[in-house]
Amino acid sequence: MPKVKIGVFDSGVGALSVIQAIQKELPELKTIYKDDKTHVPYGTRTIQEIHGFVRPIFQEFIDEDCRVIVVACNTVTTNLIPQLRQEFAVPMVGMEPAIKPAAKATKSKVIAVCATPRTLSSQRYGWLKKEYAQDIKVLEPDCSDWALMIENNRVEHDRVAKTIEDVISQDADQIVLGCTHYHWIEALIKEVANGRAEVIQPTRPVIIQLKRVLQQLS
Ligand code: DGL
Fold first, then answer.
1. Residue 1 — pLDDT band, cuts 50, 70, 90?
2. Which among 185, 172, 179, 200 has a CA at the least distance from the CA of 108?
3. Which residue of the set 66, 114, 143, 179 is catalytic?
4. Ligand 1 center from residue 39 Cα (angstroms)
5. pTM above 0.90, yes or no
6. What fold does the segment set 5-96+203-217 form as a domain?
């Protein structure tokens, strides 16, 4: 039996952490990874630009017979997934900031969402806040250059630490990693938080959703 092929996309290295988890949990899949090193980072670009970049890449996934596309990019998911679902007749699993679990878990009623500017300005993100975090203070620290810093493997530890200290000093007890690039600095963020705040990222729910979608394939 040929292996079921799936595509995993991110602008850059963000997808790799998701792929690691997929390969561990679902080793029977053939996983094709594509990124867009020419245009990364996406998080400071316009929606129209991003749409123009991802369309040909998604078409390549289709041409290569991928049965599912995992959009391992919060920026693309929150801004474009409904449109991409209409344009490409293949099931898609997206990734978006985990506001719902953070809002449920917070005791201080303050959470911090680390994400790209384009994710934070998306309608979907606004909806998530309205739906799940009405009575909660949501801090959105400036992480606008984190994706590039991580992509280029030049993480400025002190600057990340300062951002995290700052949200914790404002009482945040949940820190949402709303960009897959930031998964690579999860250990650093946890070290700085040192038990004062939980760090939440959505790889686990994505695997669960992917398993569900795979079961529904005919
Ligand atoms: N890793 C992506 C995300 O989850 C995009 C980062 C970027 O290209 O700015 O949002």
1. low
2. 172
3. 179
4. 11
5. yes
6. Rossmann fold (3.40.50)
